[in-house]
């Protein structure tokens, strides 16, 4: 399973959204990881039902830093944004209870070159961030897939740290070892964090073995968790300031 290393080479890194918590979810069974090079700002991960369809149902997880804005205020802003296009039909569907708390479920029907599209979003505010769980599907296909989407939305879970999301006995130790080596390595060079991270020395001696550990030893956590965990730890390293 070398796909994680390959995906992470292209995964956008949004340093402005370096959240202090870790969030993950369970995508619908059998869905495929979407091309990370197509991710928009704030998007953490995306899945598609099939690569063979012109417009495949998709599900994404995004984060937006909102500070002290409450959920009601944020939803009003979202509604205003969607209704700026008079062709869009916005509807607030009510509360949705997830494993990280109660969010708001909204539905937006819109048209594009593929036809009528239904966008379903579950939005939660957590620790100063809007957690936006989105699914897009052709309206004609919605009824056959909406239960899988809602099940995925409800699986959304937050943890105070990435280590808290996995009970493998060596995980915290592995994270600590990578961070310790990273800090030591940074002190040996005046290069920026991005350059140091991409260096063959750090990649071959620390990062690739760590990713391999997650791929092989933590495979039971699922591909969504694996990719999000690696991305989260990568961001932690790259956003570290000199102490």
Question: Quick check: average pLDDT?
Answer: 89
Spatial strand sequence of the major β-sheet: 2-3-4-8-7-6-5
Identify low-pLDDT runs: 1-17
Question: Helix and strand string, N-terminal first?
Answer: HEEEEHEEEEHEHHHH
What is the C-alpha radius of gyration, as a whole number of Å? 19 Å
SS class: alpha+beta
CATH class of the largest domain: Alpha Beta
Classified in CATH, the superfamily of the largest domain is Mog1/PsbP, alpha/beta/alpha sandwich
Quick recap:
Helices cover 35% and strands 27% of the residues. The chain contains 7 helices and 9 strands.
Tell me what you see in this structure.
The protein is of the alpha+beta class and 243 residues long. The strands form two sheets. A seven-stranded antiparallel sheet has the order 2-3-4-8-7-6-5, sandwiched between helices. Strands 1-9 form a two-stranded antiparallel sheet. A hairpin with a 2-residue loop joins strand 6 and strand 7. It starts with a helix and ends in a 5-residue tail after the last helix.
What distinguishing features does this structure have?
disordered N terminus; 35% helix; Protein Transport Mog1p, Chain A; 7 helices; 243 residues; two-stranded antiparallel ribbon; alpha+beta
